[in-house]
Specification:
Layout: H1 4-16, H2 18-47, H3 66-83, H4 88-112, H5 124-160, H6 166-203, H7 205-213, H8 220-238, H9 245-264, H10 269-297
Length: 298
């Protein structure tokens, strides 16, 4: 009979092993390519009046890139769960990658809606494209520095070559258990939110317009709500293996960062972009100060 640790490790290997990750990567890539071609076909059929579907995503071929990016985001969500047991910092980094890809995906929708007039700063569509383009550049730069600091810290830890103690081993086991639970929870949330959005979009034209307006937040609004719950659980659980001040501040800062990202989905325009950049920048600065504190007290 398997004990608790063996059961968790077996379930983890079934859902989140390297082999499963590689298979998932190939499957998502194939689906992304097929979905892109189908979207292009629908655009062609709509433009030549073979079918009649009212949607801004079916008017410009550039908008077709939106669809494969959506599947790439699905894979990024899986990677986030995959990295959760390995490193809190890498797990948070994946959150930042996901919100960056959401912004980049939104840019493709922005490009399809560009008005390209001389009154650039008076056009809401053109302004939103500008905000999103600048935001994506800022996020990419911050994430580069974020991972550089993770790499530096890991190099220092590897030089010390300390074996994880019993408390840390238990904490890793807990993170594996949370990751296992996240898989069915997020699959259920994805199915529910997409079905709800599709029903709203089809039911009547007025709500359909509202549903299209919020298309970027489908699933991800609820997804980051789940992440906030997970982050708080990890913060509380971390007290059992470490009561060091800088660890508590780092983990608390990551929770705040996730909450700011979640709040951004309820805002529009430049406020949305400012919240996203502010959230990721805050997380980076928290990590930077944490690593500086750790190196000074080592």
């Amino acid at each position: 009979m398997m004990n608790k640790e063996q059961f968790i490790n077996k379930a983890f290997n079934k859902l989140l092993s390297e082999r499963v990750k590689e298979k998932g990567e190939r499957a998502i890539l194939a689906i992304a390519i097929i979905s892109y071609l189908i979207h292009l076909l629908l655009i062609a059929l709509t433009n030549f009046d073979f079918i009649e579907i009212e949607s801004k995503l079916l008017k410009n071929p550039i908008a077709a890139i939106y669809t494969p990016f959506s599947f790439i985001l699905v894979y990024e969500v899986y990677l986030l769960i995959f990295f959760l047991p390995k490193s809190i910092s890498s797990y948070i980094g994946k959150q930042y990658e996901i919100i960056t890809l959401i912004v980049i995906r939104r840019i493709f929708k922005d490009i399809a809606n560009l008005e390209l007039t001389s009154k650039w700063f008076q056009s809401q569509s053109d302004l939103q494209f500008t905000y999103d383009a600048m935001t994506s550049l800022a996020l990419f730069l911050i994430i580069v520095f974020f991972y550089q600091n993770i790499k530096k810290r890991n190099t220092v830890i590897n030089k010390v070559d300390q074996k994880p103690g019993k408390k840390i081993h238990t904490f890793i086991l807990l993170k594996k258990a949370i990751a296992i639970l996240l898989v069915p929870i997020l699959v259920s949330v994805a199915i529910y939110t997409f079905a709800l959005w599709a029903n709203t979009a089809i039911s009547d034209s007025a709500n359909g317009v509202a549903a299209f307006k919020n298309i970027n937040s489908i699933f991800f609004d609820e997804f980051f709500t789940v992440l906030i719950i997970v982050d708080v659980l990890l913060l509380l659980a971390s007290f059992f293996y470490s009561d060091k001040f800088h660890k508590i501040i780092r983990n608390s800062g990551f929770v705040i960062s996730t909450i700011l990202i979640k709040i951004s989905f309820s805002t529009e325009g430049i406020v949305n972009n400012a919240l996203i950049v502010g959230a990721v920048l805050f997380g980076f600065l928290i990590l930077l100060i944490h690593n500086k504190f750790e190196s000074n007290t080592a």
